[in-house]
Write a structure and sequence with these properties.
CATH architecture of the largest domain in chain B: 2-Layer Sandwich
CATH topology of the largest domain in chain B: Alpha-Beta Plaits
CATH class of the largest domain in chain A: Alpha Beta
Number of domains of chain B: 2
Largest sheet of chain A: 5 strands, parallel
CATH superfamily of the largest domain in chain A: Aspartate/ornithine carbamoyltransferase
Oligomer: heterodimer
Strand order of the largest sheet of chain B: 2-3-1-4-5
Largest sheet of chain B: 5 strands, antiparallel
Strand content of chain B: 25-35%
Helix content of chain A: 25-40%
CATH topology of the largest domain in chain A: Rossmann fold
CATH architecture of the largest domain in chain A: 3-Layer(aba) Sandwich
Number of strands of chain A: 9
Radius of gyration of chain A: 19 Å
């Protein structure tokens, strides 16, 4: 499978076979992610260009590089760089791609990662482009599902902000490649846009929608919660009503399948009560950790290193 | 000559007749051709002309001008069935239907204000074109323009 020097921009660029290949490689590297030492990426440099805040994505890429013996160049705060002088992203990419073997980028404009790929000499890994794509999040979600549940014949409910949540669109697309039964649970004002629904159906995805989470809780393998962003609601009382409707507590979990797992891309606000953290269903912290082996896998793949 | 027999549109000597324009789009065609108040040559426009095939159509005739590829592409986006008649010395020298391109570059502004093509970055807008009906999908942010394409032409 040819991945070397390939950009990682959108999940739509991947076939199911390619996704499986990445997940298999992540499984191989997971012991190293848990604290092993390796020099697989010794002498390699990863540049991190984050024009927007990030905790997990940035730190898990750094961890992945360090665990594999590589080095990291960090843009640091925008104030300390030429960005404040008005330098374009295109110029920044042209320069930084001469300093590094790959670039991870997060930028507020949709399409910025694709544009960066047009100017870069080295692979661009999209760490989020506005409301666009976040493929490494989707890959770690798939890895979590495969490891902690199963990807074949999956019944999954995706809950919360399905309109603006970029992780949701990539994830539903990728799950459609595995023939999953997807239930989209959201308040009416945060439903998946028609355009994306049409696109999913055209790709053969099995998708249904509901506003009522309780009615489907006992028939799913994975409950994927997302954060409902307060700023999407002009009226604070409306926000409270909606946010409260999808708050998972241990009460909710009485009738669920024993094997059902709960995921969340984090950070969470109120949608999962902390009492759920110790239940046998919680997997969101494991999910966060799986970002490390997935990013190790991607880094070795785009840098052309055999494992 | 009686008023009834007066020709609605006179034949042109040299130039282009754009026929079978989607009814209501003639003004947008003029905009594409850059015809504004102080245009120097003869331009004739007919709107809502009865047509057997279309019910109604618009027609634009422009003297001493043959259209560039970019202008034809833009016309195809707002009126994919339009036909072009090149007139030389009162004769039809060439006649063809406009053709929708597969990709349009630097022709349409993306509707998403947060798209990278709407920033100071050195990229031009680029769209994939789908037919029946015409839809433009931004290759950068994937937003789709389906309606009022004329309003987004650059």
């Amino acid at each position: 499978m040819r991945f070397e020097r390939r950009h990682i921009i959108s999940m739509k660029d991947f076939t199911r076979e390619e996704i499986d290949y990445i997940l298999d490689r992540a499984a191989k590297l997971e012991p190293l992610a848990r604290g092993g030492r390796s020099d697989l990426l010794a002498g390699k440099i990863l540049a991190l260009l984050f024009y927007e805040p990030s905790t997990r994505t940035r730190m898990s890429f750094e961890t992945a590089m360090y665990r594999l013996g590589g080095n990291v160049l960090n843009l640091g705060s925008k104030e300390a760089t030429s960005i404040v002088k008005g330098e374009t992203l295109a110029d920044m990419i042209r320069v930084v791609s001469t300093y590094s073997d790959a670039i991870v980028q997060r930028h507020p404009s949709e399409g910025s990662a694709l544009m960066a790929a047009e100017f870069s000499l080295v692979p661009i890994i999209n760490g989020g482009d506005g409301a666009g794509h976040h493929p490494t999040q989707t890959l770690l979600d798939l890895y979590t599902i495969r490891k902690e549940s199963h990807l074949d014949n999956l019944d999954i409910a995706i809950v919360g902000d399905l309109k603006y949540g970029r992780t949701v669109h990539s994830l539903t697309y990728a799950l459609s490649l595995y023939g999953a039964n997807i239930t989209l649970v959201s308040p009416p004002q945060l439903k998946v846009p028609d355009q994306i629904k049409a696109d999913l159906k055209a790709r053969g995805a099995r998708v249904r929608e509901t506003e009522n989470l309780e009615e489907i809780l006992d028939s799913i393998d994975v409950l994927y919660m997302t954060r409902i962003q307060k700023e999407r609601f002009p009226d604070p009382t409306e926000y409270k009503k909606v946010a409260g409707a999808y708050k998972i507590t241990t009460e909710y979990l009485r009738n669920v399948r024993d094997s059902m797992i709960i995921m969340h891309p984090l950070p969470r606000l109120y949608e999962i009560d902390s009492s759920v953290d110790t239940s046998s269903h919680a997997r969101y912290f494991e999910q966060s950790f799986y970002g490390v082996p997935i990013r190790m896998a991607l880094l070795t793949i785009v840098m052309g290193v055999e494992v | 000559m009686s008023a009834e027999k007066e020709l609605r549109v006179r034949p042109i000597h040299n130039g282009t007749v754009i026929d079978r324009i989607l009814a209501g789009q003639a003004m947008n065609v003029l905009k594409i051709l850059g015809v504004k108040g102080a245009y120097s040559d003869v331009v004739t426009m007919a709107m809502n002309v009865p047509s057997k095939a279309l019910g109604q159509k618009d027609i634009v005739k422009i003297e001493n001008r043959e259209l560039e590829e970019k202008e034809l592409d833009k016309i195809s986006l707002i009126s994919p069935g339009a036909t072009i008649n090149i007139i030389r010395d009162f004769e039809v020298a060439d006649k063809y239907q406009v053709e929708l391109p597969e990709i349009v570059e630097s022709m349409v502004k993306c509707i998403n204000p947060n798209c990278i093509s709407n920033t100071k970055e050195p990229v031009t807008s680029k769209f994939e074109v789908k037919k029946d009906p015409v839809q433009l999908r931004c290759i950068y942010c994937e937003n789709i323009i389906m309606e009022n394409i004329a309003e987004h032409l650059l």
